[in-house]
Design a protein that fits this description.
By secondary structure, this protein is an all-alpha fold. Helices cover about 70% and strands about 0% of the residues.
Length: about 400
C-alpha cells in the first residue's frame, strides 16, 4: 500500500497546466544556478563571498535564522486546530506542517551553504561530533532535526489516513501533536540562545533575544501562510475558510506589534545612555565613521513593519483579502530584513576590538540565496499540491489521481 501511495502521490503532483510547469521550470533554473555557485564555493573557497574574517556570518546565516522562525510560525495553525478545535484551522493544519517541513529543510541547506567544508558536517552531530550537548550548536542541531521528524510523522500520517480512509489513531497522534507544538517554541528559542550567549557581541548579548525571536516568528510565519492560502484559494479547488485567514491575520497583527515594541525598547535602552556597547545598533541606525551600508536596510525594515502594522488595523485591508496581501508581504519582508541585515551582520560591526568593516554580499551569495529559496518553494509546491489532492479526495487508495485545476 505504501508503494501505491507514493505512486499515486507522484502521478498527481506531476500533472498540471502551463502555469504550473512554468513555475516549476523557473524554480529549477534557479536551483541549477545555486548548484553552480555551490561548486564555486567548494573549489575556490568562501573568498568568492563577501564574508571576511571579521564578518564571518552574512546572508546565509541571516536566512537560516529567519527560516527557523518561519518553521516555528507554522504552529500558529496547528495550535488553534488541535488545542482550541478551530474548525477552519483544522482543515488546513496539515498544510502548516508541510510548510514547517520545507522551512527546516531550507535551514539545513543554508547550513551547507555557510560551511566552507561541508564534508566536516558530522562535527555538528552530537554526541559524536565536537559540538556535543555542552555546545548550544549541538542543541540547535537536535531541536531542528527533532522538529523536522515530528512534523514529517504527524503530517504524513494524517495524509496516509485520509488516503486509505482509515481513522486517525487519536491515542498517540494527539500527544505527538502537542509535543510538536511545544517543540516549535524550542527551535527558535535555542537559535536565539545560540546568538545571545556571545558576550563579545553586545548587539546580541541580552535576555530579550528569545522573546524577540518568538514574536517575529509568529508574525512572519503566519504572514507567509496567509499569502500561500490566498494563492491556494485562487488556483486550486481547495477552499481555505475565511475564519482561518482572519485568525491568522489577528495573530500577525498583534505579534508584529509586540516585535516592533521590543525593537524600539531596545533602541531606547541602548541609545539613552550610549556606551561603546551600543555602537553596533548606532552603526545600524546612523552609521559609524562615515560608513552607512546598513542604514537603508534598518530604516526600510522599520517603515515596512510599522506600515504593515497600521494597515492591519484598517478594515479596508484587513477584511479585503485582495488587499490583505500587501501588509502580509510588507510584514514578511520587514522581518526578513530585521532578522538578517538588521541583526546578524551588525552583531559583527564593530568588532570586539573596535574595528569597523562593512559587509557587501557578493553576486555568488545572492544567487545562492535565491537558489535555496527556489529549492524551498519547489519542495513546498510538491508537498502542498499532494496534500491538497489527498484532502480533496483526488488521491485515494484504489482510485485514479484526478488532474488538478
Amino acid at each position: 500500500m505504501l508503494t501505491s501511495f507514493l505512486t499515486d502521490y507522484t502521478r498527481y503532483v506531476l500533472k498540471g497546466g502551463k502555469q504550473f510547469y512554468t513555475w516549476m521550470g523557473v524554480l529549477s533554473a534557479f536551483i541549477l544556478a545555486m548548484l553552480f555557485v555551490f561548486y564555486l564555493q567548494n573549489t575556490d573557497g568562501l573568498i568568492v563571498t563577501g564574508m571576511t574574517s571579521q564578518i564571518s556570518d552574512g546572508l546565509y546565516l541571516a536566512n537560516l535564522v529567519f527560516l527557523v522562525g518561519v518553521a516555528a510560525g507554522a504552529v500558529t495553525i496547528v495550535f488553534p486546530a488541535y488545542v482550541y478545535h478551530h474548525e477552519g484551522m483544522h482543515k488546513v493544519a496539515v498544510l502548516g506542517e508541510m510548510l514547517a517541513i520545507t522551512a527546516v529543510i531550507m535551514v539545513m541547506v543554508f547550513v551547507f551553504a555557510h560551511m566552507g567544508r561541508p564534508d566536516r558536517l558530522w562535527h555538528m552531530i552530537p554526541p559524536r561530533g565536537i559540538y556535543s550537548f555542552s555546545s548550544m550548536l549541538g542543541w540547535d542541531v537536535m531541536v531542528l532535526n527533532g522538529y523536522l521528524i515530528l512534523n514529517f510523522v504527524c503530517g504524513f500520517y494524517y495524509l496516509w489516513c485520509k488516503y486509505t480512509g482509515n481513522p486517525v489513531n487519536q491515542k498517540w497522534f494527539i500527544p505527538l501533536v502537542y509535543v510538536a507544538i511545544a517543540w516549535a517554541l524550542s527551535i527558535h528559542t535555542v537559535t536565539a540562545f545560540l546568538m545571545a550567549n556571545n558576550p563579545a557581541r553586545p548587539m546580541w548579548f541580552h535576555s530579550m533575544m528569545p522573546i524577540r525571536f518568538i514574536a517575529t516568528a509568529f508574525a512572519a510565519g503566519p504572514a507567509l501562510i496567509i499569502l500561500i492560502f490566498l494563492i491556494i484559494r485562487k488556483n486550486t479547488k481547495f477552499w481555505v475558510d475565511d475564519s482561518a485567514i482572519k485568525l491568522l491575520t489577528t495573530i500577525v497583527q498583534f505579534c508584529l506589534g509586540i516585535a516592533i515594541f521590543l525593537t524600539l525598547s531596545e533602541v531606547v535602552i541602548e541609545l539613552y545612555a550610549r556606551t561603546e556597547h551600543a555602537n553596533g545598533l548606532y552603526y545600524l541606525m546612523f552609521g559609524l565613521h562615515g560608513l552607512t551600508a546598513l542604514v537603508p536596510w534598518f530604516w526600510s525594515s522599520v517603515v515596512l513593519m510599522i506600515g504593515a502594522f497600521v494597515m492591519f488595523f484598517m478594515p479596508s485591508f484587513r477584511n479585503d483579502f485582495d488587499k490583505l496581501r500587501i501588509p502580509c508581504a510588507m510584514a514578511f519582508a520587514g522581518i526578513w530584513i530585521e532578522k538578517g541585515m538588521g541583526l546578524i551582520v551588525p552583531g559583527y560591526i564593530p568588532s570586539p576590538i573596535g574595528e569597523v568593516t562593512e559587509y557587501h554580499p557578493s553576486f555568488v551569495e545572492w544567487l545562492m540565496v535565491l537558489g535555496i529559496w527556489a529549492f524551498g518553494f519547489f519542495i513546498l509546491t510538491i508537498l502542498l499540491k499532494g496534500a491538497i489532492g489527498i484532502l480533496l479526495g483526488e488521491i485515494k487508495h484504489g482510485g485514479p489521481a484526478a488532474a488538478v485545476k
